[in-house]
Amino acid sequence: RGRRQPEGSQGSQGSQYDTDPATAPESSDERDSEQWHRLYPPISSPGTRQRYKADFGQELRRYKELCAHMDGLNERLAQLAAQLDQVPEDSAQYQALAEEYNHLKDVKRSPEYQDKKRESKTLRNKLFHIKRMVSDYDKL
Protein backbone atom coordinates (compact mmCIF):
# COMPACT_ATOMS: atom_id res chain seq x y z
CA ARG A 1 0.00 0.00 0.00
CA GLY A 2 2.68 2.49 1.02
CA ARG A 3 1.46 5.62 -0.75
CA ARG A 4 -1.85 7.09 0.31
CA GLN A 5 -4.59 7.51 -2.24
CA PRO A 6 -6.02 10.97 -2.97
CA GLU A 7 -9.28 11.78 -1.29
CA GLY A 8 -11.10 12.61 -4.51
CA SER A 9 -13.35 15.57 -5.12
CA GLN A 10 -15.00 15.54 -1.69
CA GLY A 11 -11.81 16.11 0.29
CA SER A 12 -11.95 16.15 4.06
CA GLN A 13 -14.78 18.66 4.14
CA GLY A 14 -17.04 16.73 1.76
CA SER A 15 -20.43 15.85 3.10
CA GLN A 16 -20.49 12.09 3.39
CA TYR A 17 -23.86 12.34 5.13
CA ASP A 18 -25.71 13.70 2.11
CA THR A 19 -26.47 11.38 -0.74
CA ASP A 20 -25.89 12.18 -4.36
CA PRO A 21 -29.26 12.09 -6.12
CA ALA A 22 -27.61 10.59 -9.18
CA THR A 23 -26.38 7.54 -7.27
CA ALA A 24 -28.86 7.17 -4.40
CA PRO A 25 -31.66 4.66 -4.90
CA GLU A 26 -34.77 6.75 -5.39
CA SER A 27 -37.07 4.26 -3.69
CA SER A 28 -35.05 4.41 -0.46
CA ASP A 29 -35.81 8.09 0.16
CA GLU A 30 -39.42 7.61 -0.87
CA ARG A 31 -39.73 4.62 1.46
CA ASP A 32 -38.22 6.62 4.32
CA SER A 33 -40.59 9.49 3.68
CA GLU A 34 -43.62 7.18 3.71
CA GLN A 35 -42.36 5.52 6.89
CA TRP A 36 -41.93 8.85 8.67
CA HIS A 37 -45.41 9.98 7.58
CA ARG A 38 -46.88 6.77 9.00
CA LEU A 39 -44.94 6.99 12.27
CA TYR A 40 -45.24 10.76 12.63
CA PRO A 41 -48.47 11.98 11.00
CA PRO A 42 -49.48 15.64 11.32
CA ILE A 43 -49.83 16.68 14.96
CA SER A 44 -53.35 17.18 16.28
CA SER A 45 -52.81 17.71 20.02
CA PRO A 46 -50.34 19.23 22.49
CA GLY A 47 -49.62 15.74 23.86
CA THR A 48 -48.60 14.46 20.44
CA ARG A 49 -46.42 17.54 19.95
CA GLN A 50 -44.70 16.81 23.26
CA ARG A 51 -44.06 13.17 22.26
CA TYR A 52 -42.60 14.26 18.91
CA LYS A 53 -40.29 16.74 20.68
CA ALA A 54 -39.13 14.02 23.08
CA ASP A 55 -38.44 11.64 20.17
CA PHE A 56 -36.60 14.42 18.36
CA GLY A 57 -34.32 15.05 21.35
CA GLN A 58 -33.47 11.39 21.75
CA GLU A 59 -32.77 10.85 18.04
CA LEU A 60 -30.77 14.08 17.82
CA ARG A 61 -28.39 12.81 20.49
CA ARG A 62 -27.75 9.62 18.52
CA TYR A 63 -27.34 11.57 15.26
CA LYS A 64 -24.76 13.85 16.89
CA GLU A 65 -22.84 10.83 18.24
CA LEU A 66 -22.68 9.27 14.78
CA CYS A 67 -21.61 12.52 13.14
CA ALA A 68 -18.95 13.15 15.78
CA HIS A 69 -17.51 9.68 15.20
CA MET A 70 -17.44 10.08 11.41
CA ASP A 71 -16.16 13.66 11.58
CA GLY A 72 -13.37 12.63 13.94
CA LEU A 73 -12.25 9.92 11.56
CA ASN A 74 -12.33 12.30 8.59
CA GLU A 75 -10.42 14.97 10.49
CA ARG A 76 -7.72 12.46 11.42
CA LEU A 77 -7.47 11.35 7.79
CA ALA A 78 -7.03 14.98 6.73
CA GLN A 79 -4.31 15.48 9.36
CA LEU A 80 -2.48 12.37 8.21
CA ALA A 81 -2.74 13.42 4.56
CA ALA A 82 -1.19 16.79 5.39
CA GLN A 83 1.59 15.13 7.39
CA LEU A 84 2.31 12.64 4.61
CA ASP A 85 2.77 15.52 2.19
CA GLN A 86 5.44 17.00 4.51
CA VAL A 87 7.51 13.86 5.20
CA PRO A 88 9.99 12.13 2.84
CA GLU A 89 8.48 8.96 1.36
CA ASP A 90 11.44 6.78 2.25
CA SER A 91 11.38 7.64 5.98
CA ALA A 92 10.15 5.45 8.83
CA GLN A 93 7.83 8.27 9.89
CA TYR A 94 6.19 8.24 6.46
CA GLN A 95 5.63 4.47 6.71
CA ALA A 96 4.00 4.82 10.14
CA LEU A 97 1.75 7.66 8.96
CA ALA A 98 0.84 5.77 5.79
CA GLU A 99 -0.08 2.67 7.79
CA GLU A 100 -2.41 4.65 10.03
CA TYR A 101 -3.86 6.48 7.01
CA ASN A 102 -4.52 3.21 5.16
CA HIS A 103 -6.00 1.63 8.28
CA LEU A 104 -8.46 4.52 8.64
CA LYS A 105 -9.37 4.28 4.96
CA ASP A 106 -10.13 0.59 5.57
CA VAL A 107 -12.29 1.55 8.54
CA LYS A 108 -14.28 3.90 6.30
CA ARG A 109 -14.88 1.03 3.87
CA SER A 110 -15.94 -1.39 6.62
CA PRO A 111 -19.54 -2.60 6.89
CA GLU A 112 -19.77 -1.14 10.42
CA TYR A 113 -18.82 2.34 9.21
CA GLN A 114 -21.17 2.07 6.23
CA ASP A 115 -23.97 1.06 8.62
CA LYS A 116 -23.27 4.14 10.73
CA LYS A 117 -23.33 6.28 7.62
CA ARG A 118 -26.71 4.84 6.59
CA GLU A 119 -28.07 5.23 10.10
CA SER A 120 -27.02 8.89 10.18
CA LYS A 121 -28.78 9.51 6.87
CA THR A 122 -31.93 7.80 8.11
CA LEU A 123 -31.86 9.75 11.37
CA ARG A 124 -31.31 12.99 9.48
CA ASN A 125 -34.40 12.36 7.37
CA LYS A 126 -36.40 11.39 10.46
CA LEU A 127 -35.30 14.53 12.32
CA PHE A 128 -36.23 16.75 9.38
CA HIS A 129 -39.67 15.16 9.21
CA ILE A 130 -40.37 15.48 12.95
CA LYS A 131 -39.17 19.09 12.91
CA ARG A 132 -41.47 19.83 9.97
CA MET A 133 -44.47 18.25 11.76
CA VAL A 134 -43.83 20.29 14.92
CA SER A 135 -43.32 23.47 12.90
CA ASP A 136 -46.53 22.89 10.91
CA TYR A 137 -48.47 22.35 14.16
CA ASP A 138 -47.00 25.48 15.73
CA LYS A 139 -48.09 27.56 12.73
CA LEU A 140 -51.74 26.58 13.27
UniProtKB/TrEMBL annotation:
GO biological process: positive regulation of transcription elongation by RNA polymerase II; snRNA transcription by RNA polymerase II
Domain of life, source organism: Eukaryota
Example GO molecular function: cis-regulatory region sequence-specific DNA binding
Disordered as annotated region, ranges: 1-51
Start and end residues of each OCEL domain: 34-140
InterPro entries (UniProt xref): ELL/occludin, Occludin_ELL
GO cellular component, one term: transcription elongation factor complex
Recorded family membership: Belongs to the ELL/occludin family.
Protein name as catalogued: OCLN protein
Gene name per UniProt: Ocln_1
